[in-house]
């Protein structure tokens, strides 16, 4: 661990957090507060991007260590959020238990599917 890596992760995290804020605000404006569409969107999109990046790292060794720290730990770590997912699940459960179950299942299934889709897409590249 070194200071440069920590600064790269912090800078990426700031960008990812800002992007998460904007996605959440747009989702709230478009769909309202009844369902946590923003959190679902950032987690699924983030998993897709993580799968793509992981594919380039694992399968092609095409991402330098500093860029990997910036993008994967920083940007995607700041963009996706498990704590917001947990909080959204709790409050949704208080209002509508069935919707909370759908949200939890959709978050897990879609996020895993997105990660696998990203990995698979990189494998298809020449």
Short description:
The protein is an all-alpha fold and 126 residues long. The protein contains five helices and no strands.
Distinctive features:
mainly alpha, 0% strand
Using only C-alpha atoms, the radius of gyration works out to 16 Å
Secondary structural class: mainly alpha
Tell me the fraction of residues in β-strands, as a range. Answer: under 5%
Query: In terms of quaternary structure, what is this?
Result: single chain
Number of beta-strand segments? 0
Q: Any idea what the shape is? A: globular
Described by strand count, sense and barrel closure, the largest sheet is: none
Would you kindly provide a written description of the structure presented here, covering whatever features stand out?
The protein is mainly α and 126 residues long. Helices cover 86% and strands 0% of the residues. It contains five helices and no strands. It has helices at 3-31, 37-58, 65-79, 82-95, 97-124. The longest helix has 29 residues, at 3-31. The radius of gyration is 16 Å and the shape is globular.
Produce the secondary structure layout.
Blueprint: H1 3-31, H2 37-58, H3 65-79, H4 82-95, H5 97-124
Helix pairs in contact: 1-2, 1-3, 2-3, 2-5, 4-5
């Amino acid at each position: 661990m070194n200071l440069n890596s920590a600064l790269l992760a912090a800078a990426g995290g700031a960008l990812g957090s800002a992007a998460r804020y904007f996605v959440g605000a747009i989702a709230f404006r478009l769909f309202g507060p009844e369902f946590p569409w923003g959190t679902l969107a950032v987690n699924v999109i983030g998993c897709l991007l993580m799968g793509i990046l992981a594919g380039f790292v694992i399968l092609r060794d095409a991402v330098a260590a500093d860029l990997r720290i910036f993008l994967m730990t920083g940007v995607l770590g700041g963009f996706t959020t498990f704590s917001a997912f947990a909080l959204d699940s709790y409050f949704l459960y208080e209002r509508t238990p069935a919707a909370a179950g759908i949200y939890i299942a959709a978050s897990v299934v879609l996020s895993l599917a997105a990660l696998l889709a990203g990995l698979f897409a990189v494998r298809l590249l020449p």
